[in-house]
Amino acid sequence: MVLKVRKLCEHTTLMNIMIGLANKHETFPSVLADNGYQLDSICPSFLNKDGKEVNPDLIFKSHAENNLFIVECKTGTLQEEQAITYKSLTSEEVKQQNITTLPGNFSLDKTWVCIEKNLTKVNSKNSEWKLNFPIVCKFNTTLKKSNNIPFNSTILNSIFTKGIDIPNNIPTVYYSFSPEDPEEYILMHILPAIIKLSLNPHKDYFTLEELLKETHLLYEYLDKNEKTKLRKRLGSILSYLERSELKEFLNKVTNTPNAWQIIKNRILSFRNKCQKMIKEYHSILQKKEEEKKQKKISDF
Amino acid sequence: MNIETRKDLSEYFYQTLLKKDELEEDKEKIDIKPKSFIIESNIKVEDALNNGEWTIKRTKDTDLLILRYRGKIEFFLDILDKRFWIFHSLSPSNTVSEILKSLVMKNNSKLDFIWLSSTILEKIVTLGKQTAFGLKFDNKFIKDEEKEIEHVSMRFWGGPAKEIINDLKNNPRIKQAVTLSNIGLKYSPTENLFIKENISFIGKFTVIKGIAIEPHFNLINRVKDLYSDLINKIEENYRISYVKNDNKISFKGDFLLIEFSKPLQDIEMFIETITSCRFPFRIWGIWDKLEKDYIKANCVDLHSGNKIYLELTPQWMRIYLEKNACGNIVARLFTNLQQFFDSQIKLYGAESEKIM
């Protein structure tokens, strides 16, 4: 039996699912869009009344419902201070920060979205820190509200209480990747970016910063911490590749830190090598999954 | 003949339509008919033709250039429309096609043919009276030679061209392969003028006969406008990016969707074929299976150097273009999938709007 290999990390998966729900198309449920919700902003950063920074992942808005829906896609890490700041956020504060185009007095909904694996932890912190957030969870193929705390918006209540069937083919482009994604998945973004930069006739080399901008759709807009994490992750992947699998293609530029020579005239062989590499990574991931499964069986 | 203006060019081409006894005494009969190509461009002429094989001569008209390839083959280049150039020539058809193909094919050439899908060619037919059609289908994605159509090539001349196409399309055994590769058209913009010509799916216009040359230029421009509207629509609505206004970052653009008329039998072979840098797709791409029957491919368009992202299932393929991507990639991909895979595919935009 071939085991299913996880290709996207939880954060990337949840971000893409949530944005996907607000886009009308037949290939993916568009339940937020169908009910008048639009993506208002992604990864906004603003201050609350006490001057503390708030960085939710996504904000959706509905003019019909006069409601702003703030979403945090939660993976393993939960921080109390951040959660309390998020909880105390009011619609007045949001309005004062000029981050939404929703006019007048709107209602505000805040939620944590997580996957089933993290649900117990998320629920327990929700109670322990007295947050009272409605928690939305992605179970195997359904996205559903998993506690009894209601949203202010009747539409959101109805959508997430009923649950949404999530197909396997989630759109993956809205949120490129997170630093936590598997190497193979990040490579899928780095390698075309190297080719794009190599096709620039006015350049002989590319830098890590140029590559980061080309690799991640949101890079320019991410906060400093996230940028640093991505820079570290991509830097280490590139350093590894230039010493190993791609050493015949990637050459560091001497005297210029974090810069590589462009790929000249070997576009096709570079492509075939990259594709082979992706396949090999897939096999390695699959082997690891099999080992994990074997271990579970022997532990039992 | 010395060409200095568009009028000179028009007169020069007009001579080719005349019989020997209709020519003025000092004029020689030219046997080869005019042919013209619309070429999509994202580059300046001087940069596109700087490989030492081309010489460029200016005329009195700043948007009309006379080009010579390796000192021999003459072209007249109309760059009035900076995005869609028109190459005219009286040289032999195969020679002209090969020269332009090699010019366009170079990686990152920033030049491309226009790609007239079967759907667009059927629209163009309505501009005049259809006199012929050619079908060409060459299955590059074949899995089962005994069950699937491998190759279709057909040329038909005569009045009931449209009816014959419809009959073929209604035949379930062959409809997958009924892809127009060229059309013959009698075009009469006014009662007294007409031209007969062939238009191929890569935007090649070949004059057959006529009583005036003006309809030839007029037809080229009408097709150019039709195609340009399609590309503009794609570029305005279907390029994705994030934009920042004040504190707010929002998502802009939508994806396009190609829907297959029957499920793909082998999605790995399909994606490998279109992403392995080969002509005509010209896509550099790497792909990975995210789920059973769900593949993601991150690609670069070798014509423009911009990124595109594909998500593929046996039933459909999502296409995302990055900011500044050239919309021609969509027409190229769609038209060639019709030529080499399935003539019945459809292209949809946001909210299931049918685009082609």
Summed over residues and divided by their number, the pLDDT of chain B gives a mean of 91
CATH topology of the largest domain in chain A: Trna Endonuclease, Chain: A, domain 1
Assembly level: heterodimer
Helix content of chain A: 40-55%
Shape of chain A: globular
CATH class of the largest domain in chain A: Alpha Beta
- Low-pLDDT stretches of chain B: none
Name the structural class of chain B. alpha+beta
Whole-number mean pLDDT of chain A: 89
End-to-end CA span of chain B: 43 Å
The strand count of chain A comes to 11
| Number of DSSP helical runs of chain A | 10
- Report the biggest beta sheet of chain A as strand number plus sense, adding barrel if it closes: 7 strands, mixed
The geometry of chain B reads as globular
Characterization of this structure:
With 300 residues, chain A is of the alpha+beta class. Helix content of chain A is 42%, strand content 16%. Chain A folds into 2 domains: 10-165, Trna Endonuclease, Chain: A, domain 1 (3-Layer(aba) Sandwich), CATH 3.40.1350; 183-289, Arc Repressor Mutant, subunit A, CATH 1.10.10. In chain A, the strands form 3 sheets. In chain A, strands 1-4-5-6-7-8-9 form a 7-stranded mixed beta sheet. A two-stranded antiparallel sheet of chain A has the order 2-3. Chain A has a two-stranded antiparallel sheet with strand order 10-11. In chain A, a hairpin with a 5-residue loop joins β2 and β3 (53-54). In chain A, α7 (183-198) packs antiparallel against α10. Chain A is globular. Chain A starts with 9 loop residues before the first helix and ends with a helix. The relative contact order of chain A is 0.12. With 356 residues, chain B is an alpha+beta fold. Chain B has 8 helices and 19 strands. In chain B, the strands form 2 sheets. In chain B, strands 1, 2, 3, 4, 5, 6, 7, 8, 9, 10 and 11 form an 11-stranded antiparallel beta sheet that branches. In chain B, strands 12, 13, 14, 15, 16, 17, 18 and 19 form an 8-stranded mixed beta sheet that branches. In chain B, a hairpin with a 5-residue loop joins β16 and β17 (307-312). The radius of gyration of chain B is 22 Å and the shape is globular. Chain B starts with 5 loop residues before the first helix and ends in an 8-residue tail after the last strand. The chains are: A alpha+beta (300), B alpha+beta (356). Chains A and B meet through β1, α7 and α10 of A and β12, β13, β15, β16 and β17 of B.
